[in-house]
Design brief:
seven-stranded antiparallel beta sheet; alpha+beta; binds 2-oxoglutaric acid; binds fe (ii) ion; 12 helices; Jelly Rolls
């Protein structure tokens, strides 16, 4: 055999789906390799290979293990105190009109309206955590804020699972994840969110009797973030001390589910997209195939193929 014949490149063993990716195939190679590694069978809460180094870099293994077992976690050191102060200023500047329930006021539909909110929404440590829970290709869902003052008695409002528009049993692959970002941290007496540990394992909504279950507070130091699974039963806390608890409630959803808030208008805003954090594109669904078919043109098969990869991670 001549030397030349030996170096002839073999035809690449690629699936028709990968061929459809065209120029994107190179960029998506780590994801394609990661799917191959798990044979497309990555289990709930498993960390995909391409994500492993980021989980180590951000020291997230312990909080992910806690989240898996109990359905919630407190993630320390997500953002420096100055960023949390800027987030509080942003929330207060956008809040006012909406009364969430006395003594709480708040603001809604917050993505794309303040750089401090977009910055925490695309925080790489939070996104790595979210990806373990709701998968690659996750979408921005609901971004709302609440400002809670001292109250004489607990705020009415029951314990619930956040994916409360999904029928039970909930899918084993979690669909909704909520990060509760308290700008000044939150202790029990400052009104920390309360959870029923382990309730996510039931994969269903609480019954009326269970909605009165015993709960524990998720206490978080300033710079940290509370997080819970869409299946875990939880409710808001009771602030018994002076001052205010200022929180951003940041929710993300699995690729195939419909996000609560519709932020797709931002993708069409060229000025916004020119300076938006890079991760915003994926969160807004720029690479998703939904709604791409029109009279005379099939669904975008490149985007469809990309979704078949991301949905398995
Ligand atoms: O206000 C809280 O502590 C929690 C509210 C809540 O249920 C949520 O953000 O999903
Ligand atoms: Fe909730």
């Amino acid at each position: 055999m001549s030397e030349q014949a030996e170096t002839v490149e073999k035809p690449r063993d690629e699936s028709p789906m990968v061929a459809l990716l065209g120029q994107r195939a190179e960029e998506l190679k780590p994801l394609i390799d990661s799917v191959q590694k798990s044979k497309g069978l990555l289990g709930p809460y498993d960390v995909a290979e391409h994500l492993q180094t980021r989980i180590e870099e951000f020291d997230l293994a312990d909080s992910i293990a806690h989240f898996r077992e109990h359905g919630y976690a407190a993630i320390p050191d997500v953002a420096p105190p100055e960023e949390m102060d800027e987030l509080r200023e942003a929330i207060h500047s956008l809040s006012g009109e909406i009364t969430v329930g006395s003594p709480t006021r708040g603001a809604s539909y917050l993505l794309g309206r303040h750089p401090a909110i977009d910055r925490i929404a695309t925080n790489p440590k939070l996104l790595a955590f979210a990806e373990v829970s709701v998968g690659n290709g996750l979408r921005a869902s609901q971004f709302a804020a609440s400002i809670m003052g001292k109250a004489e008695k607990p705020i009415a409002g029951g314990i619930h699972a956040d994916q409360n528009w999904l029928p039970a049993p909930f899918p084993e692959h979690n669909c909704v994840i909520t990060f509760c970002i308290p700008c000044d941290g939150m202790t029990d007496e400052e009104g920390a969110t309360r959870v029923v540990p382990g309730s996510h394992l039931m994969r269903r909504h609480p019954t009326p009797a269970e909605a009165k279950s015993e709960t524990v507070p998720i206490e978080v130091e300033k710079g940290g973030v509370a997080v819970w699974d869409g299946s875990v039963w939880h409710g808001t806390g009771w602030r018994r001390v002076d001052g205010e608890r200022t929180v951003l409630h940041a929710t993300y959803q699995r690729l195939y589910t419909q996000p609560i808030d519709d932020y797709t208008y931002l993708l069409k805003d060229e000025d916004y997209m020119a300076t938006a954090p890079e991760a915003m594109r994926g969160l807004l669904g720029e690479r998703l195939f939904f709604g791409t078919a029109h009279a005379g043109s099939m669904v975008d098969m490149g985007k469809f193929s990309e979704a078949t990869i991301r949905s398995k991670l």
